[in-house]
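YggS family pyridoxal phosphate enzyme
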Amino acid sequence: MSVPQVLAAIRAAEADAGRPAGSAQLVAVTKGQPLEAIERCVLACGAFPLAEGRAQELRDKAAAWPEQEWHFIGPLQRNKVKYMRPVTLVHGLEAAWQAEAIAQAAQGWGRAPDVLLQVQNGEAQKHGTEPAALPGMLREVQATGLTVRGLMVMAPDLDGHPDRDERLLSLFRDTARRAQDLGLSELSMGMSGDYPLAVSAGATLVRVGRSLFS
Ligand SMILES: *Cc1c(COP(=O)(O)O)cnc(C)c1O
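Structure:
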């Protein structure tokens, strides 16, 4: 796969779902990729936000390309908040202390990143906020002054399950409904293995990595 092929698959899933072309945006996940490969495989095909999952890697790449739009998709530790300075969107916010720490650091940066609240996916992976606790988390994060633009979810690995697609669709649709109930418009869901399903359920940001580089 390549960026043009992934974009074509996104456009096809939008059309199948009756969504406007371009309503789902590609966020290119570049973790582990050298700058040369990112330039050749991604930026040669257009301008895309790039997403990193490890704070030091983000720091180094953002220093090399300061004009680039950067997103952060990894779990955020307290001592790594300082590296969020170049970031415009933090996808996986999962605790109010993270919002407080970002908001405080951002006072010295002149601008703050927006955030998405990560929703627990109900399976083994325990990152994120339980759905029932989302309204409270939203209020706590908004109280720090950060702008919450939407929700983010990571699908569990269901490869080999006979009802994989139905279960993923149902997780993505539940997440879309939760965002709507909270009045949030941005939905970050879908990775290389499942982004067409996520787009059909309403994803506005798909975080695709491996498929862009293989
Ligand atoms: C690595 C990663 C992705 C991209 O995964 P691929 O399978 O490479 O497309 C998306 N989201 C998060 C949070 C990731 O860590």
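Residues 164-182 form the longest helix (19 residues).
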